[in-house]
């Protein structure tokens, strides 16, 4: 999402001292009101400091590491069996060698399939988790915009944004972060109070 912010400076000759001052103040007020309708957040800072995102990333990393260890263990066992066959295959009959090679080939295909399936599942879960995060942020921004009267909330990411400069007064990243983390903290507190009650039953 990007937007081009422009500032217009108009030079007008004052016809009277009182009139020019009033006109200038009125123009400044209108300009400030217009700019206040548009604010932005730093998406890099938002994600790196959003507690829900941190927890989701930790859960996903743990799941990914577990899947990788499982695949590595199976691959190591397969490699061990291949090496064992290479050492003892010469003592087998033709039928035994054919049967063993077929089984090893099937296991290799199963490992490759499992690796691909696991990778696809993790990619899907990651995409779903990111959608949840953006949905949560969007819902909060909609609520905040209704409260503050924002007409548009832009996102800024260094090196990947159409916003080359934005006044710091329009940056609501910290405010949004505080609100999002507060909501998530309340959710975790509510969930933790429900768990003991469920266990008692």
TrEMBL record:
<dbReference type="GO" id="GO:0050821">
    <property type="term" value="P:protein stabilization"/>
</dbReference>
<feature type="region of interest" description="Disordered">
    <location>
        <begin position="92"/>
        <end position="121"/>
    </location>
</feature>
<comment type="similarity">
    <text>Belongs to the Skp family.</text>
</comment>
<protein>
    <submittedName>
        <fullName>Periplasmic chaperone for outer membrane proteins Skp</fullName>
    </submittedName>
</protein>
<dbReference type="InterPro" id="IPR005632">
    <property type="entry name" value="Chaperone_Skp"/>
</dbReference>
<keyword id="KW-0732">Signal</keyword>
<dbReference type="Pfam" id="PF03938">
    <property type="entry name" value="OmpH"/>
</dbReference>
<dbReference type="InterPro" id="IPR024930">
    <property type="entry name" value="Skp_dom_sf"/>
</dbReference>
<dbReference type="GO" id="GO:0051082">
    <property type="term" value="F:unfolded protein binding"/>
</dbReference>
<feature type="compositionally biased region" description="Low complexity">
    <location>
        <begin position="99"/>
        <end position="121"/>
    </location>
</feature>
<dbReference type="GO" id="GO:0005829">
    <property type="term" value="C:cytosol"/>
</dbReference>
């Amino acid at each position: 999402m990007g937007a081009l912010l422009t500032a217009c400076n108009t030079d007008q000759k004052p016809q009277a001292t009182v009139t020019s001052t009033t006109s200038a103040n009125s123009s400044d007020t209108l300009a400030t009101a217009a700019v206040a309708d548009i604010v932005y957040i730093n998406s890099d800072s938002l994600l790196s400091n959003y507690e829900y995102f941190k927890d989701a990333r930790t859960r996903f990393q743990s799941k990914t590491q577990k899947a990788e260890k499982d695949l590595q263990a199976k691959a190591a066992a397969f490699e061990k069996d291949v090496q064992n066959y290479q050492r003892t295959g010469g003592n087998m009959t033709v039928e035994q060698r054919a049967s063993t090679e077929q089984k090893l080939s099937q296991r290799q295909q199963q490992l490759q399939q499992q690796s691909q399936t696991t990778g696809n599942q993790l990619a899907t879960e990651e995409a779903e988790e990111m959608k949840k995060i953006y949905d949560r942020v969007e819902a909060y921004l909609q609520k905040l915009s209704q409260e503050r009267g924002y007409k548009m909330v832009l996102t800024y990411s260094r090196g990947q944004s159409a916003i080359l400069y934005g006044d710091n007064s329009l940056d609501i990243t910290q405010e949004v972060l505080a609100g999002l983390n507060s909501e998530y903290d309340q959710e975790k507190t509510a969930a933790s109070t429900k768990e003991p009650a469920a266990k008692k039953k």
